[in-house]
Amino acid sequence: MLRHFLQFASLLQACLLAANLQAGQPTTYVRFQHGDTVAYGLLRDDQVTQLDGDLFGQWKETYQRFDLTQVKLLTPTRPTQVLALAGNYRSHLQSAEIPPKFQIVQPFFKSPSCLIADGESIVLPKDSQDVHFEAELVIVIGKTCRKVSEDQAMEYIFGITAGNDVSERIWQNDQQHKDVQWWRAKGADTCGPVGPVIVSGIDYGNLKIQMKVNGQVVQEDSTASLIHGIPKAVSYISQYVTLHPGDLIFTGTPGETSALKAGDICEVVLEGVGTLRNPVVAESKAVAHSEVGAAKFKFVQEAGMSLDLLLGDRRVLRFVNQPRDGSSPEAHYLTFKPFHQIFDPSTGTQLIASGSHPNTKEFLFPHHRGLFFGFNRIKYGNKSADIWH
C-alpha cells in the first residue's frame, strides 16, 4: 500500500510540474550541497526537492527534501564558458560616454573560476584600486547552441539568474595601466557573483533590476532598456562560439557604477528571481571559497533501458541495453553488447551519440572497445581497450 501511495505521489508531482510548465508558470531551480552531496533541486516554498539526472536533459524528482536552511546554495551551474555584454544599457552608455561601436553586440569572456555563490565574499585584490559593482541579468543556456537565428534563440535558453559583473576600472580603462584584455579586470577570482536560483518560464523582457550597496539603491532600471535583447545576444554569440548547457551570459549593467570598499554589502535584486547578496572583503581577510566535499559517483537506473553513472550531479557514462539485431553481421556486431554513451562531466555534453544517430558506425562503440578520451586509448592485443572497466 505504501509503495503504491508513493508512486501515486510521485506521479502527481510530475503532473503538477508539467501543468506549471505548460501554463507558463515560473519554475525555480537551485544547485545545492547537503553534506557531501551536490545536486540540483526544485525550490518550492523554501523547500528543496532533490533531482536525479541531468537538469539540462532528463531528470526526475526524488523523495529527498530539505528545508532551504538545511542546504548550502552553490553557483547555479558549473559552466564551461562565461560571457558578458559590454555597454548594453542606454543609461550606462550615457553615463560612461561609450562610443557608437556598442551599437552592435560586444561580448567578452569572464573566467568560469571567477564565479561565486550567494553569500560568498567578493575579495578586493591587494593591488586593486577601483573595484566597481555591476548588477546584471544572466542568461543560462539550456542546450548546445551553434549558429542559431534570433527566432530560434529562445529555444536554447533554460532560464535566468542574477549576477554581479564585478570590475576593476583601472585594469579595465586607465590609459596608462589598463591591460590589453579584460582578463583580470572582470575575470579575477570572485569577480562573478551569480545566483541564488535559476528561474525558467518567466518573461524577462521587462524585469526591474536593482543594485543595493549597504541597503541603498545605487542602480535601477528595467531589462526593457537593453540595447541588444536576449535573443539577439544569444544568436550573435552562437555564430562564432558554440554554447553548451549551463553556460552563462551576463547581459550588461545599467546606469552609473562606483567603487566598493571592504565591509560593503552588495545586493543584486532581480524581479522574479530574488536577491543575490555578497559581502566585500579585503584580500588579507578573505577565506578561500570552495564547495565542501568531493563529488561522489552514483548509478541511476532509467526505466530499465539504461543505467547512468553520475559524478555528483553530472552524467559521465550511460550504459544502454540494446536488443541484439540479427538482421545482418554488421547489425549483430553493433548490438552484441551494451553500448556506452560518454558525457563530459563538467558540462553534461554527450560526446558519443546513441544508437539512433545517423552516423552510428562512426560514433557508437560497444563495451570494452575504447573511449574517445586520449588517455584511455591504450592497446591490448592490437585493439583499443577501455581502462575504465
**Strand runs, count:** 25
Number of helices: 7
The first-level CATH class name of the largest domain: Alpha Beta
Poorly predicted ranges: 9-23, 353-389
Distance between the termini: 40 Å
Radius of gyration: 23 Å
SS class = alpha+beta
State the helicity in percent bands.
10-25%
Shape: globular
Second CATH tier, the architecture of the largest domain: Alpha-Beta Complex
CATH domain topology of the largest domain: Fumarylacetoacetate hydrolase, domain 2
Instruction: Specify the biggest β-sheet.
Output: 12 strands, mixed
Q: Approximately what portion of the residues adopt beta-strand conformation?
A: 25-35%
Average pLDDT metric: 80
Question: How many domains would you count in the coordinates?
Answer: 3
Tell me about this structure:
This protein is of the alpha+beta class and 389 residues long. The protein is built from 7 helices and 25 strands. Strands 1, 2, 3, 4, 5, 6, 7, 8, 11, 12, 14 and 17 form a 12-stranded mixed beta sheet that branches. A 5-stranded mixed beta sheet has the order 9-19-18-15-16, with no helix packed on it. The protein has a 4-stranded antiparallel beta sheet with strand order 20-21-22-23, with no helix packed on it. It is globular.
Secondary-structure topology with pairs:
Elements: H1 2-22, E1 27-34, E2 37-44, E3 47-53, E4 59-67, E5 72-73, E6 82-85, H2 90-96, E7 107-110, E8 115-116, E9 122-124, E10 131-132, E11 135-141, H3 150-153, E12 157-164, E13 167-168, H4 169-173, E14 192-200, E15 208-213, E16 216-222, H5 230-238, E17 248-250, E18 265-270, E19 274-282, E20 297-302, E21 306-311, E22 314-320, H6 329-334, E23 339-342, H7 360-363, E24 378-380, E25 383-385
Parallel strand pairs: 6-17, 8-14, 9-19
Antiparallel strand pairs: 1-2, 1-5, 1-14, 2-3, 3-4, 6-7, 10-13, 11-12, 11-17, 12-14, 15-16, 15-18, 18-19, 20-21, 21-22, 22-23, 24-25
